[in-house]
Write a structure and sequence with these properties.
Length: about 260
């Protein structure tokens, strides 16, 4: 269960909004952020917060530690400055050299959390965004920012959040939705309800067309896949569903009677 930071966030919020309205410079914004990390997110200013961490000539504004190990990198911008993905380039370089997977970009009121992966290159995904200038979204913002709390990071809640987020992403759902056996279940159910047997490719195209442009972009080109390496356990778990759908399939017509 995540930590409730709503009270602490609402108490500190005027300081962040004042920085936004005054277009506070980056250095002064960082000072307020450090106080925010201490008062709202539970980090110790002496042991958990490092400023301008450096590695091979690459700097990051703030590094947040848990049990002495850096877990979050923070790239800060001046109050009210518009945030862009390119602003994390320096933090990305620093993160890739140290295998850090989380980068926060913020100007005090707008927050973007990125998850980084390192393969052939550096890839990043937005985990969440928060806008503290919107009064009607404070509770939701508090719930997201609470994932950055020291105790949530320590207990693995931030990593669990990312696992759930990726599991429910259009890309992950699309990989499952366009499996042959999943489409087969849908075809059987449609036939049960309408008495019409739909071609597998036609069904896949219809589903793909129902998705938003953003979802289709994440899923990529439509491709019907076969599941690989089905384990005995997975087969056993799927058996009840297969049996249930098979029971609803129309029975095949009897063979014609032989003529005399």
């Amino acid at each position: 269960m995540s930590i409730d930071i709503r009270k602490a966030l609402k108490k500190f919020l005027p300081h962040l909004r004042q920085a936004h309205d005054a277009s506070l410079n980056e250095a002064d914004t960082v000072q307020r952020l450090i106080k925010f990390f201490e008062d709202v997110l539970g980090y110790d200013a002496l042991t958990d917060i490092s400023r301008e961490a450096e590695m091979k000539g690459k700097y990051v504004d703030v590094a947040l530690k848990v049990d002495g190990a850096i877990r979050l990198l923070v790239e800060a911008k001046a109050g009210g400055e518009k945030l862009r993905d390119r602003h994390i380039e320096q933090a990305q370089s620093y993160a890739s050299r140290n295998n850090y997977h989380w980068v926060v970009l913020t100007n005090g009121t707008e927050w973007i959390l990125y998850h980084l992966t390192f393969g052939e290159g550096i890839e990043y995904s937005r985990a969440f965004t928060v806008d503290l200038m919107k009064d009607d979204d404070i509770d939701s913002s508090a719930e997201k920012l609470a994932l950055l709390h020291k105790h949530c990071v320590k207990r693995g809640l931030l990593d669990e959040f990312w696992e759930r987020t990726t599991a429910l992403s259009p890309a992950a759902i699309g990989r499952s939705l366009f499996l042959e056996e999943v489409l087969g279940v849908l075809r059987r159910e449609i036939r049960r309800q309408t008495d019409v047997l739909i071609d597998q490719e036609d069904l896949a195209e219809a589903i793909h067309g129902m998705l938003s442009p953003e979802a289709r972009e994440q899923i990529g080109p439509l491709k019907i896949r076969k599941r690989k390496g089905v384990t005995k356990r997975a087969a056993a778990e799927d058996a009840p569903a297969r049996a249930a759908t098979a029971a609803t399939d129309p029975a095949p017509p009897p063979p014609p009677s032989p003529t005399a």
